[in-house]
What we know:
The chain is α+β, with helices and mostly antiparallel strands and 248 residues long. The protein folds into 2 domains: 3-180, GAF domain (Beta-Lactamase), CATH 3.30.450; 183-247, Orthogonal Bundle (Arc Repressor Mutant, subunit A), CATH 1.10.10. 58% of the residues lie in helices and 13% in strands. It contains 11 helices and 5 strands, in the order H-H-E-E-H-H-E-H-H-E-E-H-H-H-H-H. The chain has helices at 3-15, 24-38, 64-73, 78-85, 94-100, 102-110, 143-167, 169-197, 201-214, 219-229, 244-247, and strands spanning 43-50, 53-55, 89-90, 115-123, 126-135. It has a 5-stranded antiparallel sheet with strand order 2-1-5-4-3, sandwiched between helices. A hairpin with a 2-residue loop joins strand 4 (115-123) and strand 5. The longest helix is centred in the C-terminal third of the chain and has 29 residues, at 169-197. The two termini are 13 Å apart.
Amino acid sequence: MSREQHIARTFVELADTLVEDFDVIGFLQQMTVRCQELLDVTDAAVFLAHGPRLYSPAPCDAGPTLQRVLDIACAEGPAADAHRTARPVDANGPGDEAARWPEFTAQLRQAGYSRATALPMRLRQETIGSLLLLRSADRPLDADDIALAQTLADAATIGLLHARTIRSQDTVNEQLHTALQSRIIIEQAKGLLAARRDVSLNEAFEIMRRHARRRRLLLSKVARDVIDTGSTLHNSAVLPGTSAADAE
């Protein structure tokens, strides 16, 4: 699959929020995976406003160290600033980051990242959160990657707002609350499935996601089955040389 085809497929995925069994957990997780695949970043996380503060309901691969970065980023750092100002936020370098966000920067360095960039998730006058991009390389994202990342964030925002309009805000907020509680279960299942199948974490997530969609199950339900039953989901295998998205 060419990069252009991959980008086009991603935008189709981000528009697919009007289905009856829309799963906000899987949607946000897929967003972070596609950012890792398409952009020159190490990790990515989506932050959504829920009440008075930000939460990161579906980080890409949140081990304990990365999870601490995301927890602090909810209140301090580029993700919080991008949501507050509705503008892209990027520091000029390590010194600038340390002066602006001392606690966030200290945890960022401890986790092995060198740079952090955040883009608002917005539609007209409404900002619902932000997209945080983390890099190990000590150089800023180039303009093309920033433009693509903002377009992805905009597309995801439109999809989420459409879903909220169709179902009512209370329903989507309830799903977000469930997402916050289910995050650890999904990450544990990804790790277990990756080990059992000898695949990457991203491939393990793709297998679970496709299994859930084909059987009209919530991703959290599939993750719980992987943990509780030892399932390897072999009937949802990704063929060698293809991605899970290609298999669909």
